[in-house]
Specification:
single chain; mainly alpha; Ferritin; globular
Length: 222
């Protein structure tokens, strides 16, 4: 009996050892497979997410790049050889927009043009009001009317009505505000007058905003 018992025990231990080894190998293989699957999903998700974010960034960047109108100091400018000439040109510019906007309101333009014209009158009156004390301190007398170019074009604009007037008005706003923005930007680096520099810093973003609005309206009308 003892002789038979020991071989049986040996066989049982051998079978148990094999079973444990097989379970360990199966568990290890399963873990490796799961890890590989997880890594594959992670790589795929990362690649897709990175591509989507990249495309989104490009789209947003493009929209932002085309969404604003900026001054070009190398583009057409009004006269600004010195501070006196600059301030007089700036005051003329304010009057150009104010007077043309009043003309637009008198013609009973559409609601968007009416809102824009009212904004021009408000902002350009404020611009001149802020410039007056700086000019007075420098002994400069500011003009209170449009410049010669705009006085000459006014009769022609007066004859226009309806859509024809609105299109001309918007086109002129784009031209005028681009020129004004260019002048402000160009003179900002020239003047040594600290008060005038501060005025330009405050006024330029407003003018660029007007330019952007006019360009958007102009594009919609084309």
């Amino acid at each position: 009996m003892k002789t038979l018992f020991f071989p049986l025990v040996g066989v049982s231990l051998l079978l148990a050892s094999c079973g444990t080894a097989n379970n360990t190998e199966s568990s290890t293989a399963s873990t490796s497979t799961d890890a590989a699957t997880t890594a594959s999903k992670s790589d795929s998700s990362g690649a897709m997410g990175g591509s989507a974010m990249s495309d989104s960034s490009k789209m947003n960047g493009g929209a932002m790049a085309g969404g604003s109108a900026m001054a070009d100091p190398n583009g057409p400018t009004a006269q600004h050889a010195n501070d006196t000439e600059f301030m007089q040109s700036a005051a003329h510019s304010d009057q150009n927009e104010i007077q043309l906007s009043k003309m637009a309101l008198a013609k009973g333009v559409s609601a968007p043009i009416k809102a824009y014209a009212n904004q021009m009158i408000t902002d350009h009156n404020k611009s001149t009001a802020n410039l007056k004390p700086i000019a007075a301190k420098a002994g400069v007398t500011l003009p209170t009317d449009m410049d010669a170019e705009h006085k000459a074009m006014a009769p022609t604009m007066e004859k226009l009505t309806g859509k024809a007037f609105e299109e001309k008005f918007v086109q002129q706003m784009v031209t005028d505000h681009q020129k004004t923005a260019n002048t402000l930007k160009a003179h900002q680096t020239m003047t040594k007058n600290n008060d005038l520099q501060k005025w330009i810093t405050t006024t330029l973003p407003v003018v660029e905003g007007h330019l952007s609005m006019a360009k958007q309206d102009s594009n919609m009308k084309m």
